[in-house]
């Protein structure tokens, strides 16, 4: 096993936020798809399709209200990434989560790649005008569907979450090459099923050990000699890791600040 790592790269998914109270998508009873079933979607992923959103924005606005920034607190795992950043040991944090808990944990914007966008900003789907965040929050909290304030347009306003068939944020395509210089990759809380995000792990150099921290096996992690599989709840595993490193107190202190 290689030693003397420079820094850590992270590839995060919904499992990192379940301890915060945000369900993942696919868990049978508790997952978001199961919970959205009551909204009579024709099929679960319709909630992330632009044509369906035009026809019926209510399911996506219901989801938006559930996930809106400020309702949840970052987890120990988010705090661990922040700790590495504070110590100058964070290479890049790639996340497919849309809950903005990485930002809330204090992971700096220049190290963060929100591959599927986030609820931090929003635009009209027709004229593309940006909509004011404070006003958006007010209306989302009231349970309203928000329309563009450009009167000649009045199109639907959509948080900048990437829907199926939409292009990914430019930042993702610019940042993908960074995986080529990763020298220690942590893949946490993801089923590694959504592309192109999932392929990042297989793009890591052969010399880069990959550590999977997840409830289940994911992707091809486990097929390389230096891969490490830590199966279980990520917060418990991160705590154990920090204890081994003598960082547990710092981790708790930083987490208490979130
Ligand atoms: P997923 O396909 O739902 O998989 C989640 C993975 O996390 C599974 O393999 C679980 O076994 C694992 N897991 C769940 N809880 C834990 C835990 N406590 N500790 C360790 N592992 C755990 O989610 P992915 O992120 O892989 O799928 C990609 C989708 C889900 C992306 O498009 C996301 O935008 C989307 N998503 C995001 C959020 C969020 O922002 N918090 C929530 C739900 C879905």
TrEMBL record:
Its main location: mitochondrion. One of its GO terms (molecular function) is histone deacetylase activity, NAD-dependent. The active site is at residue 116. Its cofactor is Zn(2+). It is found in: Mitochondrion. GO terms for cellular component: mitochondrion; nucleus. Keywords: Metal-binding, Mitochondrion, NAD, Transferase, Zinc. It comes from the Eukaryota. Residues 1-248 form the Deacetylase sirtuin-type domain. Zn(2+) binds at residues 124, 127, 148, 153. Belongs to the sirtuin family. Class I subfamily. This is NAD-dependent deacetylase sirtuin-2. It comes from Lentinus tigrinus ALCF2SS1-6.
């Amino acid at each position: 096993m290689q030693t003397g790592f420079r820094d850590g790269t992270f590839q995060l998914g919904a499992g990192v936020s379940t301890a915060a109270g945000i369900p993942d998508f696919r868990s049978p009873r508790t997952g978001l798809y199961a919970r959205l079933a009551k909204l009579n979607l024709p099929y679960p992923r319709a909630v992330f399709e632009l044509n369906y959103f035009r026809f019926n924005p209510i399911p996506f606005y219901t989801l938006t209200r559930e996930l809106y920034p400020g309702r949840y607190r970052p987890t120990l795992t988010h705090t661990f990434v922040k700790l590495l950043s504070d110590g100058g040991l964070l290479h890049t944090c790639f996340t497919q989560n849309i809950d903005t808990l990485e930002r809330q944990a204090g992971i700096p914007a220049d190290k963060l790649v929100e591959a599927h966008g986030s609820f931090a900003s929003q635009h009209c789907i027709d004229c593309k005008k940006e909509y004011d965040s404070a006003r958006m929050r007010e209306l989302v909290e009231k349970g309203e569907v928000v329309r563009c304030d450009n009167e000649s347009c009045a199109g639907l306003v959509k948080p900048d979450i990437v829907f199926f068939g939409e292009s990914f944020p430019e930042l993702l395509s610019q940042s993908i090459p960074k995986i080529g210089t990763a020298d220690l990759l942590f893949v946490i809380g993801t089923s590694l099923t959504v592309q192109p995000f999932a392929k990042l792990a297989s793009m890591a150099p052969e010399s880069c050990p990959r550590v999977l921290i997840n409830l289940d096996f994911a992707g091809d992690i486990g097929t390389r000699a230096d891969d490490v599989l830590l199966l279980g709840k990520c917060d418990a595993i991160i705590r154990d890791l920090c204890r081994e490193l003598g960082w547990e107190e710092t981790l708790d202190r930083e987490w208490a600040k979130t």
